[in-house]
Amino acid sequence: MAKTKTTFFCQNCGAQSAKWQGQCTSCKQWNTIAEEVIQKAEKATWDISQTNTSATIRASKPQKVSEISTNAEARINTKNKELNRVLGGGLVPGSLTLLGGEPGIGKSTLMLQIALQLPYKTLYVSGRGKCAAN
Questions:
Q1: Alpha helices in the chain (DSSP H)
Q2: C-beta atoms surrounding 115 within 10 Å
């Protein structure tokens, strides 16, 4: 059985803290922190006898560089010579490609131009990362 653990929750906003405090650091309300007993989930153990015995188990071992097989992957031509060169010949089918760089250098413009030229349906996902200022 797992060791019993307690934590402290604000009854007003639900903020969690490791120790009791008179004032909640999130909502700034006084005397709203209450102790609650929680229990860690027990770790599941992996039993090899219950695994699929028909699967072959291969042990990894180091190889010399000259022994590594270099099978060429099928590539999708992006119709952009420079992008194909950077990607090693084009996009690998079923893969995900992350394009990063400074804001305003044309990542979105390039990707939208490529998507318009491809004869396939294309999923373009854009996100904004959170940078920590020094």
A1: 81-86, 107-117
A2: 14
Q: Which two tokens stand for residue 62?
A: 């180091």
Q: What is the pLDDT of residues 32-74, one digit of tens each?
A: 888 888 766 566 665 555 555 444 555 677 888 888 777 777 8
C-alpha 44, offset from chain centre: 23
List the domain boundaries for the chain: 4-39, 74-117
pTM over 0.70: no
Q: Cα 130–133–134 angle (5° rounding)?
A: 145
For the stretch 88-127, pLDDT in tens is: 899 888 888 888 888 899 999 999 999 898 888 888 887 7
